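Known limitations

Structure tokens in this collection are predictions and should be treated as such. Users comparing against experimental data should check residue numbering before alignment. To illustrate the layout, the record for Methylmalonyl-CoA epimerase is reproduced below. The input appears on top and the generated tokens appear beneath it.
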Amino acid sequence: MRKIEHIGIAVKSLSTAIPLYEALLNTGCYKTETVETEMVNTAFFLTGESKIELLESADEQGVIAKFIEKKGEGIHHIAFDVANIYAEMARLKAEGFTLLNETPKRGADNKLVCFVHPKGTNGVLVELCQEIIES
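Generated tokens:
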């Protein structure tokens, strides 16, 4: 893992949270995006070399809606940039970690992603991210 790519924060409303984080971070939101497969709307902020990703459920049955219902708004996951997501998934699996998906999925911000189950990471949902390079 090369660096923290972003920290994901679950919010009830992007329209409320975006101005709050723009003021807090003293920078504008550079991108919003819907990831239909995950039923989530996202907003991104660049802070140094890392990013903050706000996550709003696009469906009341979505994972973010369920997370907020159970735990409230707040940090949802930490994402790490990896050079080769397939190799990192194989390494973590060999180390005994449980992956939430067997193959990487297309995520927000032009990334291939895979999540590591929080049961094996002291309760922290970990995301692996690799930039998609179109050829």
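For this record: Residues 14-25 form the longest helix (12 residues). Residues 52 and 133 are 22 Å apart (CA to CA). Please report discrepancies through the issue tracker.
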